[in-house]
Amino acid sequence: MSTTDHFAAAELARLCAEKGVHHAVISPGSRNAPLVIAFSQQPAITCLQVIDERSAAFFALGMAQQLHRPVALICTSGTAVLNYGPAVAEAFYQRIPLLVISADRPEEWTDQGEGQTIRQRGVLAPHLKKSVQLPRATDELARWQAGRLINAAIDATLLPAPGPVQVNVPFAEPLYGHAEDTNAVRLVAPMPTASVMLPDKGWRARQLSQSLKVMVLVGQGLWGDAFKGQLKQWAKLPQCAVLTEATSNLDDDAFITCIDRTLEGVHAGNETDLRPDILITFGGAVVSKRIKGLLRKWKPDQHWHIDEAWRGYDTYQSLTHDIAVAPHVFLAQMEGQVAPNESLYGEAWRMVAQRMREGHEAVLGEAPFCDLAVFGTLLERMPAGSDVHLANSTAARYVQLFDRRRGLHFFSNRGTSGIDGCTSTAVGAAHATGRPTTLITGDVAFCYDSNAFWNNHLPPELRVVVIDNGGGNIFRYIEGPDKDPALLPWFEAPHGRDIPALVKSYGLACYQAHDAGTLAKGLDDLYGPHERPAVLVVRTDAEVSPRILRAYFAKLHKP
Questions:
Q1: Which of 172, 200, 254, 267 has its CA 20 to 30 A from that of 85?
Q2: What is the pLDDT of residues 88-105, one digit of tens each?
Q3: Low-confidence ranges of the chain (pLDDT < 70)
């Protein structure tokens, strides 16, 4: 098989194919020509071109998020790799396997006035699991070193926990030569081992059996049906309350699934009953700022964080036990070990949740056309069982207020919570799955990442709902900017863009809505048959929506 005559690039492509890296997202350049030649000639690897490196990185992140396997990112030398930074940071905190392969000029030219040459070695290191620099020499010893580094880098994208890895590859000219594949590097097969629980489960079982108030809080993560079944068994314990969010994708009547809404029912009269003695946490980021603040105030007597790889995760400033084991292993080894007691803790949380649910329905029934009402309609009208991507930050927060009962699966870039690649992530995810996918985004986030549509891999299953509330409307609700009219424009940042015109410039169908009637019609059109993604722009009043949201929480909180 023909490949590049640059040894490192040829072996990178071959080992990626053999180790299960079957997708590469490539941005054009010249210095990365050996990589383009090598990867495009590998029959087991599908290569996709995305011109904008920042968008390309989030596109690959969305693919890897859904495929649960590494996706390669390939760019040219110089500042190109710096554009990967936001997506790499998101992948690091969301634990998504990305293999960043950056072409470089010979390192001897760094800081010597050579074009497209920066200090590229380890340039993304703070948010990488591993970073390697391949040798430029091709003698026998250098080939052995290259093979060893390539094997280790690919394996590190998945083990011991997924995350981003960078391989920096210096190339000297000429760049476009071909050669026959030599299979010169031996594949090293990783042998993952199962994590084993610490040998004190008897003490833990006694603690949980005797405690009257145990809270289990689950953040973002890839949780399957088996894990959900394990949690449901815990929720049956009278001393236990299980709290989850939209991005946990663990919706069940046994759990408290609308945390921000439920917390409005916490007051001086019941706070002591609802404060946990033991807090057990699984997973990554939690969206709810309210639960973070409340748990930092309550400071449970014990906080156990269960994670096989991430150490010292003390979000609530109460960590007492840092348990290095996979969550499903912890739950499996505790199965049948925890005895129910006479507590009413779980029931107390469920009673508050039910009262807040009734209040939510009453308020929503009286609400005028606003962001809150729009989200209620969207969650009822999206095709059941579809994937839903939530842009930061308004969309990710509003969805937490609603019961989620239609088999929707939620995703959001909550590792770093930035707006910079929300659309590109959704495009990449929908491309990878081919499933019906809806992105709910705001006008600023949509404009910021509009280059997401600047590629030839747009999935026809993707639908986008842009809630245009005047730009950065969340700052009219967040305490601080909302109280200083002179500063508000700096935070709110109205964009002044014609979003329908922007959408049409990419050749996509665009519909518009401004009230309940046009929203219903717009959703009918949006979810009709299309050969390319379609967009619905929903315009809401910049002053009405935050006012209604404040009134919503005030009415729920009222005894």
A1: 172
A2: 999 999 999 999 999 999
A3: 182-183, 191-199, 471-493
- The pTM of the full predicted model, rounded to 2 decimals, is 0.93
DSSP structural state of residue 128: -
3-state helix, strand, coil in the chain (%, to 5): 40, 15, 40
201-352 CATH pick, 3.40.630.40, 3.90.1150.10, 3.40.50.300, 3.40.50.1220? 3.40.50.1220
Identify the architecture of domain 2-177 in CATH.
3-Layer(aba) Sandwich (3.40)
**Residue carrying structure tokens 């014609």:** 498
Number of H helices, E strands in the chain: 20, 19
Structural domain boundaries in the chain: 2-177, 201-352, 367-557
Q: Residue 131: what pLDDT?
A: 97
Confirm whether 2-177 and 201-352 share one CATH topology.
Answer: yes
Q: What is the pLDDT of residue 483?
A: 62
Q: Which of 134, 32, 11 is nearest to 78 (CA)?
A: 32
Name the residue type at position 548: I
Burial class of residue 201, CB neighbours in 10 A (0-12, 13-18, 19+): middle
Quote the pLDDT of residue 474: 57
> What is the per-residue pLDDT for 489?
64
